[in-house]
Predict the structure of Carboxypeptidase.
Amino acid sequence: MIDELVSHPSFSEHQLRVTEPDLCDSSVKQYSGYLDIAEDKHLFFWFFESRNSPADAPLILWLNGGPGCSSSTGLLFELGPCNIANNGKSVTHNPYSWNSHANIIFLDQPVNVGFSYADDGTTVSSSPVAGKDVYAFLELFLNRFPKYSTQPFHLAAESYGGTYAPNIANTIYKANKELQLTPNANLKRINLASVILANGLTDAYTQMGSVADYACDGPYPVYDDPEGPQCYALRSKIPTCQRLIKSCYQFNSKFTCVPAVLYCNSQLFGPLMQTGRNPYDVRRKCDRAKDGDLCYKQMGWIETWMNEPKNKVALGVSPDKTFASCNMEVNQAFTMNGDGMHNSALLLPDLINDGIRLLVYAGNAGKHLLNFVGNERWVELLETKFNKEFSETKSVPWSTLDSGRIAGEVRSAGGGGFTAGNITYVNVHEAGHMVPFDQPEAALDLITRWITDVPLSLDKAIKEAAASIPPL
């Protein structure tokens, strides 16, 4: 293990502590450690090189949501090089890891999430502030490891990451523009190629408006009768929820946004929680006594493995730090700031119009409030130069290139059908909130085609036919 301290002249209060672990997937180069922000804020990260051609592979930053949930849960439960197993006593190889064709960073943010910590009660409770910290991390990381800075950078975030990521992307975009006007040899232009939002919360007004449609008329209805009393009651609460969110959008104040999040969560999410369904996958029941508070026993396994003393040492984590999959105090701090009720979608059009691509995907059995119906609706409303084309485009089947199995539907604008698109929405079939967990092959096919800019409408038959054409 190498322990190294890296500082940066443009971020005088920031330092990067780096170690080289040999966990999870010993076949690839790894780095882990902390971004120290001033003396009281420390962000934990874990990086894996690509299994294939790392020198030429793009870079992905993966963030889980919550707010307050560790990206190590995404690593060990969804899309990392290894999967948690055996009650947290071991991990197994993941053949569908997203580092198959990409270098990838898993970052615990904001402070007090996962192994990230603060010394003197310092907290972060808004996505704009979190975005600045993530930008500082990326500058430090890419200056320390410049070989990863030359390829395209993709920002991927799940769930509440639909709020985080637009703020982070906007910070990067503005910093890049400033560097164009005032070059700084100490700062790198981050090659932001795309933003990837997975079952995210991005435009609360539009998404909350879809809850009854999904719960009552969706492919996996929560209630038996779409015209019954439960669905009637759910629909009756939506106008008030949307009125409160509209007030938040208009005034962008904690005093207008907090009432929106409290009402919408209690009146729309509360009744659905009482059904006994898994809130992350409406096809499943949830027995919290057996499955844990988050309805997946693997979350407890992850805590067991991450808190193993020898694993902490390998990752450069102090033995006295305790890992939790999600920190509910951080969750409450963001909630009581009304952070998630701001319209983060407004941060995206300038980026998209300037060539930064957007991928939004959602499982069709996912979380009630962040369902696939609402995600498609807000993407359709995005006011970009691709709006008309996207609105007129119909969804087409998407099948994986390896197995040829139909994995969902894709709707895309930009690229003329020859690329993965400038704005692309994907409905992933038979998947809950954590798509890579439920459909690992499909998720890897999706991310690989996106980062290589290959159309998702391309199917296996066309691929094989093209491969059979002899060279001229």
Observations:
- The mean pLDDT is 93.
- The domain at 4-203+340-466 is CATH 3.40.50.1820 (Rossmann fold).
- The chain has 17 helices and 17 strands.
